[in-house]
Write a structure and sequence with these properties.
6 helices, six-stranded mixed β-sheet, alpha/beta
């Protein structure tokens, strides 16, 4: 796969836009805006997970959810879920001990040659096979340096 961007964002960042914590919502908005400016990418998995959470837990109406999905797909490169990513994710589970869906995010980023994944689900500063993980809610993280 050719390089599709510099940053992948995980579902938890998008979901944070709808949380109760105002500071966290503001940071999530900043992260998403900054990632979009830095040629951000979203694995299709992230869109699917967000839609599921938005309908089940956040209880967004369908019109609002559709608008949010349209905004995301117009702002980010969408990385399709392919059999190659599934195979790489399985390898990531075996080789690195990832939970499967985390491995799928890592695999999508690695195969697209994207160097950063923004997520709370990994240890900040960890680098695995060319993919570095950053918790964007860590106040010491300067997104402009990515």
């Amino acid at each position: 796969m050719a390089m599709s961007g510099r940053i992948v964002i995980d579902t938890n960042i998008i979901v944070s836009l709808y949380g109760r914590d105002g500071e966290r919502r503001a940071r999530a908005r900043q992260v998403i805006d900054e990632a979009a400016r830095h040629e951000g990418a979203l694995p299709a998995q992230v869109l699917a997970e967000f839609a599921s959470v938005a309908l089940r837990k956040i209880r967004l109406d369908h019109t609002t959810l559709q608008k949010q999905i349209e905004d995301l797909t117009s702002s980010f490169t969408i990385l399709p879920l392919t059999e190659v990513i599934v195979r790489e994710a399985v390898r990531g589970v075996r080789a690195h001990g990832f939970a499967y869906y985390d491995a799928q995010i890592w695999a999508a980023a690695r195969l697209a040659q994207i160097p950063f994944v923004l997520s709370e689900d990994f240890s900040t500063g960890a680098e695995i096979e060319g993919v570095s993980f950053v918790n964007p809610f860590d106040e010491t993280v300067d997104l402009s340096t990515l």
